[in-house]
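Look over this today:
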Amino acid sequence: MDELLSEQIESLLGTNYSIKGLNKNLLTLSGFLADATLPDNVAAQLERVSQLAILQDLFESLMQALNHATAPANKSRLEPSSDTEGGASRDLSRLLDQIEAVRTQIGACGPINYGELIAWIATRGRERNMLRQRSRR
């Protein structure tokens, strides 16, 4: 298990991730490297990262629903007709309201100091002798 964690830490330090991938890696590694309790500053940062990861997944899901609803093959469903009485338009309006609400929540997550989290993970990895020592040239 330590070898796998070591590889994940080194990957975190040497790979460019999307923000979504970075968030998930930070949460996973922090959970494995934590002792009984996390330092308060790290715990607060991870709480925001966790909230952001959930909201980003929700936002992505809502955007996929919007893309599906507005795809050319589905456009006729959005136009009010006598038998739907604008039901599809109301559904689209509700979907847009949900997207806006999640977008607002994402903006309110608060700042995340990724450098601090990565430094804490690297420090914990070094303390557990999980990081390979690289020779300097």
The mean pLDDT is 84. Residues 20 and 57 are 9 Å apart (CA to CA). DSSP finds six helices and no strands in the chain. The radius of gyration is 21 Å.
